[in-house]
Fold each of these.
Amino acid sequence: MTRFPDIETTLAQAGHFVDQASGAIVAPIQLSTTFARDAAYQLPGQHSYARAGTPGTAQLEQLLAKLDDAADAMVFSSGMAGIVAVLESVTPGQRISAPSIMYHGTRDWLNHIATQRNLSIDWYNAGEQGALERSLRPGETALVWAETATNPVWDVTDIKRAAPAAHDVGARLAVDSTVAPPVTCKPLQLGADYVFHSATKYLNGHSDVTAGVVCTALGDTQWDAMRLHRTLTGTTLAPFEAWLLGRGLRTLALRFARASDNAMAIAEHFSDHRAVDAVLYPGLASHPGHCIAAAQMRNGFGGMMSILVRGDAQAALAVVGKLRVFARATSLGGVESLVEHRATVEGPRSPVPKNLLRLSIGIESADDLIADLEQALG
C-alpha cells in the first residue's frame, strides 16, 4: 500500500511545534476563558472568549486540517456536536440522504430533525449498488451523509462515485470517516465536501477524551454558519481535552497500523469458523466492498469488524459473556479491544442483525485476542 507522504512525521511531531518563548516541544494548556484587551480596547490576538475557541483549539485545528488536506477544521466537545453542526446547515424543506444502517446517534438525530425542522430523510442501503444515487432528488437533496465503512455492518461507499452524484443534484457530500482516519483515507481528496471524525475514537485512541472534528474542502458562508452555530451553542472543545487529543494524535499512525494487522489476523482466522455465520471486515478479499475499500484506504483497513454468531441474539450474548480479554463496552478505536452487542445498545427498533457482535480490535497480542474468541465461541 502507498502511504500518504510525511503524515507519520507530522503526527509524531504534532506539526513540529516549538514554543518560541521557552523552546518547549509540547504545547502548553491555556486554560483562560477570557482574553484581555489593550488600552485602545483591541484584542492582541484572535481570541476573545473561550466559547468561540482558544489558542489550544486553534493549534489543534491547524494540525487536523493539514492531516485531512482541508481548507479548515473545527473541533467540538463531542462527536455528536460536530454531526449536529453539519446537519443543522440544511434548511427546512430540504432533503438529506443517509444510510439505513449507520451509527445510531446520527440516525436518531436525523429522525429527530425530520419532525422538528420539516426535513425529509431518504434512506439508502449502503451495501446495494446504485442505492445512494437512487435516493437523490435533483434540486431537493441538500446533503448526502455517508460512512466509510457503515457502522456496524461495514458496507463500503465509493466516495469517488458518491461525490459527483451528490454534486449533480446540487447537494454536498459529508463523509463520516471515524473508522478510517487520515492515516489511511482522505475523503476530501476523493471529492467529499466535509469529513467528520468522532475524535473520541481513533484520533485520540485512549478512551479518555470525548471530542468531534469536522473538516471542510472549502471555507464559505455555509462553513461560517457552522462556526457560528458552534459558538452560539457553546460546543467547542475545552482546553484540556484539546491538549489530550493533540497528544493522542502523535501515536495515531502506530496504533492504527497495529489494530489493522490484528483485525486482519482475526478476520482471516474466523472467516470459516464453525460457530460463525460471517465475518464482516472490508479487509477480507471476500468482502463485497473490498476493492473499493482497498482503493480508498491506502494504509490498512482498521480495527473495526463484526461477526455474525451462528444462532440468535441469545447465542451472541452467550459468547459476549464468556469473553475474558475483550472488554464488554461501547465505543471504538482505543488501544484496548472491545465487544458490543449492537442490537442491545441500540434498543428494540435497531435494524442491526440480532446475532451481530461488533469488535473494536486494539493493540494487544493478536494471539491472545484469537484465543479469547475461540474459547468464547466454543
Amino acid sequence: MKAADLFDLARRNLRESLLRNALTTLGIAVGVASLVAMLSLGIGLQKMANRRLTRSGLFDTVLVSSRAEFRGFNRGLRPQATGTRVLDENIRQEIARRPKVVEVFPDIRFPTELEYGGKPNLAVIAGLPLSAAQNEALEGMQGRFFSGPQADEAILLADFAKELNPQPAALIGRDITVNYPERQVLANAATPAGFSVIRRQRALRVVGIIEHEPYSGFRGIAHAGVFIPMPLAESLNVLQPGDLRGLATPDSPGRTYNSLVVRVASPNDVEAVETFVKQSGFGVFSLLDATRNLRRFFAVIDLFLGIFGSLALAVASLGIMNTLVMAILERRREIGIMKALGASDGDVKRLFFAEAAAMGISGGMFGVLLGWLLGRVINFGTRIYLQHQQLPSEDVWLVPWWLVAGAIAFAVAVTLVSGLYPAARAARLDPVQALRYE
C-alpha cells in the first residue's frame, strides 16, 4: 500500500468517528499540556534562580587570600603547596591575565570615625567596584550609583543610614566626613615595607542607600555600612592589616593585600581559576559546591515534575488504545475486504499506526499550545502577586524550543506504543471471519 493511500485512508477513518477521535485527541492534548506546564515551571524556576544568583555576584566570584587568612574556611581549601606567599600587585596582575577572568580587585575595608551633623559615629567603609552597578543588591536602590571611579561619593547601607538619620532618604545629597589612617611610604626606609601612618580627613557626598550588602556571601564588604568607589578606595592608600604583617616579613614586596576578589565570566569558569590559585600557593574560597548542589536539586525537581506530568499522558494513552480497539470492532468488514483485496498484515498494522500517529501529532501540537497559554496565565498571575507584595516582577515559567519538540515527539511515541496492541489485533483478523461479521 502506498504511503499516500495509507494516510488518506487513515484521515477518512478518523473523520468518520469525529467526536470519539476528537475527545481522544483532546485527552492527549491535556496530557501534553500538563507535561509542558510542569516542566516549563521547573525550567523557569531554575532560570530565575540562576539569573538572580548570577546577578548577586556570588557564584562567579572567587575569594583569594594567604592560607593563614582561611583557617576558619578550611572547607573550601585543599592545600597543594607548602609555605605562604604574599598577595601583592604582581600576584593580582598574574591572576587578572588568566583566561575567563573579568576583573580582580582587592578587598579593601577599614574601620573609621564618621562625622555627620557634628556627631561622631563608628563605621566600616569598603571599596565597591564599578561593576557592582549590576549587582542584585542595588536593585531598588534609593538614589543613584557612583558618577565616576574617583568620585567623592558614598552609598550607605540602610541599617547604618538609620543610625545617622531616622529618615534615611534625607541623607541623599548630604555630606559626611570620614577620618582614616593613610599609609605613607618612607622615602629613606631600609625596606619597601617601611611606612608611616598619617591621619586624614575626607568629605563624601551620599548618593544612594541600599538595603542589602553586595557580595554578602563573602566576608569583607558584607559587613560594611559605607561603600565608596574601589578606585577611590585604592587611591586613599588606607592602612590595611596586611601592611602590618608586611613589616614582619623580610621579603615583603611593599604594598600587600589582605585578600583579592576575582570575578570570572561565568560560574563554569570558577573551577579553573580555583585550581590555578591553589597551585600558586594561596587559599581560595567560592560557592562552587553550592552551585553544584543547586543544579542537582533542580535536576531532581525537573525529574519529578516530568514524571507527574507524564501521568496524564499515560492516562490519555489508555483512551487511544480504547478508541483503536473499538475501531477494530466497528471496522471488521472493512479490514476483511482490505485483506481479501491483497492487503498484508503489515498494511493493516501501518494503517492503525498512521491513525495513532495522527492523533498523537494533533494532540501534541494542541497540547503544547494549551500548555503555553497556561504558562502565560501563570506568569501574568505571578507578576500581579509580586507587585502587590512590592517585589520585582519575575517570569517563573519558560518554554524552550527543545521542550516543544520533545513534547510532540513524546506524544507521538506514546500514541504509537498505545497502538501496538490494537494494530496487532487488527492484523490477526481472519478475512473470512471478518467478512462474515454481521
